[in-house]
Specification:
8 helices; elongated; alpha+beta
């Protein structure tokens, strides 16, 4: 991906990349071919065709002394274009470099390999995201904080200012609310208010409850499974596993860049903060209870 983007900017005449767009294209095409051979998928023929088209373009362009660069544009406008192009290229490279860490943040090899509640709802996963955190409190002390998540309840213990910046209307509640200690299968856990954005994306947006195992797991459709595992008598592992449905298709191919460059990084930032938010609240409440008891 980085190679093809660099080649595209070079073909458009971005300084520092212009002279190397052909080798970037060749290297990216070869890497793509190797990846398609190592990890066969339903888009193999499409990917193969695009790679050979890119190689053919390089071969054809060798008969011309200069690439088909965009001419014109001077001064500050051209400098702005160069800066934006390099910044975007750096961002893509950074996202790809950090992606393995992002997809398994906090998760051990044993936890990544084990079956969890919710796996049965997506037996064949197109992709997986596993996040985890250790909480210094028993499972029974963590569960009440987890089960009351939702825009209509305590929010998501994440960056509420960012959520409210898009109109989510999240109200931070740093306490356990007894009337919010229940979720039922089929119930909607809303992420934004009803008719958000004037209903442009539907009346109700959120995740339906697929499974509830009290003091063990909360499984949400389209999000994943929140699972509590006792690590010791007073320590809990909170795992979140997201499994993408199905196999790659044309629609998935078209939306993959958005998912990779926008959704995954933003999802990681918000979900990581959510796990740490649950950890902080559960540990503080458990410590206060312990001190009172002693």
């Amino acid at each position: 991906m980085v190679g093809f983007i660099a080649a595209g900017f070079g073909a458009l005449g971005v300084r520092g990349l212009r002279e190397y767009w052909r080798p970037f294209t060749v290297m990216a095409s070869v890497a793509s071919l190797v990846l398609l051979l190592i990890v066969p998928s339903g888009v193999f023929v499409i990917g193969l065709s695009l790679d050979f088209m890119a190689m053919a373009l390089v071969a054809y362009s060798r008969s011309n002394p200069e690439p088909a660069a965009v001419k014109g544009g001077r001064g500050i406008l051209r400098l702005t274009g160069i800066v934006i192009s390099w910044a975007f290229l750096f961002y893509v490279a950074l996202v790809l470099a950090l992606r393995p860490w992002n997809l398994r943040w906090g998760t051990s090899d044993a936890e990544f390999a084990m079956a969890l509640p919710g796996d049965q709802f997506v037996p064949v996963a197109n992709y997986r995201i596993d996040h985890a955190v250790t909480i210094n409190a028993p499972v029974d002390e963590v569960w009440p904080w987890l089960i009351q998540i939702g825009q209509d309840r305590v929010g998501f213990y994440s960056y509420s200012k960012l959520e409210n910046a898009i109109g989510a209307r999240i109200t931070k509640v740093d306490r356990i609310v007894p009337q919010w200690q229940d979720r039922r299968v089929g119930e909607l856990v809303p992420t934004v208010p009803p008719n958000w954005m004037s209903g442009a994306f539907g009346k109700d947006i959120g995740a339906r409850v697929l499974q509830v195992i009290p003091r063990r797991a909360l499984v949400l459709d389209g999000w994943g499974a929140f699972v509590l595992r006792p690590a010791s008598a007073n320590t809990t592992r909170l795992l979140v596993r997201t499994r993408g449905k199905g196999v790659p298709n044309l629609l998935g191919l078209a939306t993959a860049p958005f998912g990779l460059l926008v959704f995954e990084p933003s999802h990681f930032v918000m979900e990581r903060r959510m796990l740490l938010g649950i950890k902080e609240r559960a540990e503080r409440a458990y410590l206060e209870k312990t001190l009172v008891a002693s």
